[in-house]
Amino acid sequence: MAKISFLFSFLLVVAFGFVNGSPPKDAVGIYELKRGDMSVKFTNWGATIISVVLPDKNGKLGDVALGYDTITDYMNDTTYFGALVGRVANRIGGANFVLNGTEYKLVANEGKNMLHGGPKGFGDVVWKVKKYKNEGHAPFILFGYDSYDGEEGFPGELKVTVGYTLLPKNQLSVTMKAKAVKKDTPVNLIQHTYWNLGNHDSGDILSEEIQLFASRYTPVDSQLIPTGKLLPVKGTPYDFLKPNTIGSRIEELPKGYDINYALDGTPGKLNKVAVVKDKKSGRVMELLANQPGVQFYTGNMIRFVYKAHAALCLETQGFPDSVNHPNFPSQIVTPEKPYKHNMLFRFSIAP
Ligand SMILES: *[C@@H]1O[C@H](CO)[C@@H](O)[C@H](O)[C@H]1NC(C)=O
Ligand SMILES: *[C@@H]1O[C@H](CO)[C@@H](O)[C@H](O)[C@H]1NC(C)=O
């Protein structure tokens, strides 16, 4: 979050006419979870993470998530800062797919393709606050959104929740669930926080080190739609099997990293996804998740408030455009088999 939280709360109260913590139904508010010296702020606009405050190696608190000062900026945002993205995150080629022999035409919002659920995806709607406990042993907040049949072109009603919980030792758990009410539908939810372990306003992340537990990636065409192949990272700038700085080979790519990796872990289990380290602050972020893929993105398109490469995103997910690639793990959710996506962020200080 860019400036002081007080200013943010104040602006929200003025703009929406309610006091932080007890908004009327369907209003937009901000919420905070605190445990020890870790605190995280959210807004129910897009079930968004606004800030993640943690100590550095000297015990100095700092915010490691990019964010805006006003809700107006979130509403105008085109980079999905901190948002919960769906119904199908990432790209769907041609903004259409066939399910059960029926062709579904979606709302395109990136040329002829759909990105991140369409022009009004889950990151651009007001979520309900279903539960909120801001302190204690396991502070948590649960947001809910009921997506209607035909929303952005997708089939069937879908009931979605995302729960954020602060666990001991500076851990943040994210649990995304979705239940198809009557019809089958594709679902691919992501948490789109932009991380900069050196502080949100400390400049670029090119000197931060990353390790990605993925031996293969899904190459894309010129419109960033997967070709359907899975290629080894070995010998490419995508190889982070051993820890390396983000900037080490970024010049070899047109704009920076924006690619989905096929993770090496056991399908469906909570596997190691990535470890990110920032030498200057000493902060370390470890990510675990139960998804087959992770989109590694170096904020190539950031233009507003912050600059390109000011942060990185690790969006665990199914593979992009899975609805059009039968060889990719299926993203179809049925009324009998709900969707569940777990992420666990572990923050620490390098020894
Ligand atoms: C909306 O966002 C764009 C960048 O995406 C920025 O250039 C513009 O100034 C913003 N508008 C307002 C009113 O903040
Ligand atoms: C697809 O077919 C199955 C089984 O016939 C049915 O349960 C489901 O609702 C159908 N999905 C859609 C999106 O029509």
TrEMBL record:
Pathway: Carbohydrate metabolism; hexose metabolism. The keyword Oxidoreductase does not apply. GO terms for biological process: galactose catabolic process via UDP-galactose, Leloir pathway; glucose metabolic process. The active site is at residues 192, 315. It comes from the Eukaryota. GO terms for molecular function: aldose 1-epimerase activity; carbohydrate binding. Its EC number is 5.1.3.3. Gene3D superfamilies: 2.70.98.10. Residues 1-21 form the signal peptide. InterPro entries: Aldose_1-epimerase, Aldose_1/G6P_1-epimerase, Gal_mutarotase_sf_dom, Galactose_mutarotase-like, GH-type_carb-bd. Beta-D-galactose binds at residues 90-91, 192-194, 258. Keywords: Carbohydrate metabolism, Isomerase, Signal. NCBIfam families: PRK11055.1. Belongs to the aldose epimerase family. PANTHER family: ALDOSE-1-EPIMERASE, GALACTOSE MUTAROTASE. This is Aldose 1-epimerase. It comes from Durio zibethinus. The lineage of its organism: Eukaryota, Viridiplantae, Streptophyta, Embryophyta, Tracheophyta.
